[in-house]
């Protein structure tokens, strides 16, 4: 009977691990795509605003990546079964290997790949970490490009999203709440990337991002719809707890 239930559990978890593998592989593709988009949106031939106006399709793709990233990580944080299932898969696979039991599934996710996937999913926000690391690497790899080109691009996108969300004239044009969620996620996403690549971060007084305004926009939404985004600012940013961050901003981001 125990053998039967083990087979049943194994049969249920293998397809789920296959999905986790696809998302992990997708994260690797995102890194390359992000580098290409940033290169196009931060070149020196025009200002960030002009870039976003002239390359709207690329800006939209960048926004879509940020939206997907924040949405994926929100779902991941509320589904602890993801890591539990993957841990069970790895334990079972190791036990089968020790007992010399052949497992076709190992060809799909071998031990080396499983180790990399385990490190990826161990992060509370794995996709966001991928984008943060990729943006930081883009800046470090392109030393001929002033860092302001990247931070100003991110700052401009955050400002555009904030204005669209807080201005009734723009807000009234939104077809549905999905558009609101899209803008909120993009705004939070570019803030986090800015905080990682700017030497002083997004929360200092000299920051070009209106953090108080952005947090207010988030706080003005139904709490249930933005709690994950507020948590992303609280727990996945780099400089929030620095001494240079004002107490007002820290108080605004305190959990209720």
Automatic annotation (TrEMBL):
- Pfam families, per the entry: CYRIA-B_Rac1-bd
Report keywords, A-Z: Lipoprotein, Membrane
InterPro entries, per this entry?
CYRI (IPR039789), CYRIA/CYRIB_Rac1-bd (IPR009828)
GO terms classed as biological process:
regulation of actin filament polymerization
Gene Ontology annotations for the cellular component aspect, listed alphabetically: membrane
Where's it mainly located? membrane
Protein localization: Membrane
Protein topology in the membrane = Lipid-anchor
Family classification? Belongs to the CYRI family.
Could you tell me what this protein is called?
A: CYRIA/CYRIB Rac1 binding domain-containing protein
Native species: Esox lucius (Northern pike)
